[in-house]
Amino acid sequence: MINMTVKKPGAEVASIKKKQATSLWLLSLRRFLKHRMAVAGTVLMILIILFVIGGAFFLTEDYSNKISLVEKFKPPSAAHPFGTDGVGRDILARAIWGGQISLLIGVISVTISIAVGTVVGLVSGFFGGWIDSLLMRFTEALLSIPALVLLLLFSRSLVGITATINVLGREFSSSTIFIVLIIGLLNWMRLARIVRSLVLTLKEQEFVTAATTLGARQGRIVFQHVLPNCIAPIIVTATLGIGNAIITEAYLSFLGFGVLPPTATWGNILTGAQSQLDEVPWVWMFPGLLIILTVLAINFIGDGLRDALDPRSTK
């Protein structure tokens, strides 16, 4: 007996699309793995994450905040591998717990900026007209103001805030939330312009025209046809934005406008050495080195992703 099965055309097309998508991601992965600096950056980033997460199992947060004026400004030793700060706190422990907050600030603030920038770019580019004009004029107005001025203007209001909040058993300065929001809401403008320019090109493509002709709703066209083709620059921008957010938090903290105690970050650890940079180099050297290595690793990963996700790349 002959068994005859008839495949539905829709299922066959879906299978082909799935294979094509899988092939594209595999091709991007191969390109990324060929990028030596990107691979090195990935390994370095994994080591840093293991340092800030794994180290927490050996040194508690209470220990990182323990004050001992007898041991203030002690140089690196077996008891304190990174030395101590101006009130005798162990810098290694503070670098571990502060690193978690610095990375968290980078990830959350970039998530906010990516979400805002993507939505603004999609809406502006796809709908055009007065919506495009209004959103782009607002975006350009924010871009015309130096970012540092805006950051200092908004963060200046945090100086008097000393309240703390408890999240999952950890105590945070409330300034942490405000810093995340400030950095996130002041770094979406360039991504919005990038996404808008892509959408202006994509909405003239045949697949968008075909979807419109078939009666697809605008929301479906935007999120199922246009947005997936903007993923590559969004991923690259997000990756590089994390490094930028970490640096921003660091120099705000160094200027006295960043995250306030008791919450430790790599940035506010540096603040303790402002008046004695030459006398106590270990206070700023280790957290500063961690910031540099983290930003370098993220930039290397971003460069690798940019090349790997470039559809015109032949490597």
Task: Return Rg in Å.
Answer: 24 Å
| Overall helicity | 55-70%
Main sheet: strands, sense, barrel: 2 strands, antiparallel
User: How many β-strands, per DSSP?
Assistant: 2
Number of structural domains: 1
Q: Work out the strand percent.
A: under 5%
How many DSSP helices?
A: 13
Q: Helices and strands: which structural class?
A: mainly alpha
Can you tag this structure with a few keywords?
315 residues, mainly alpha, MetI-like fold, two-stranded antiparallel ribbon, 13 helices, 67% helix, elongated, disordered N terminus
Would you mind describing this structure in some detail?
The chain is mostly helical and 315 residues long. It has helices at 9-34, 36-54, 61-64, 91-127, 129-144, 147-155, 175-185, 189-202, 206-213, 218-226, 231-254, 266-271, 281-308, and strands at residues 164-167, 170-173. A hairpin with a 2-residue loop joins strand 1 and strand 2. Helix 2 crosses helix 13. The N and C termini lie far apart (51 Å).
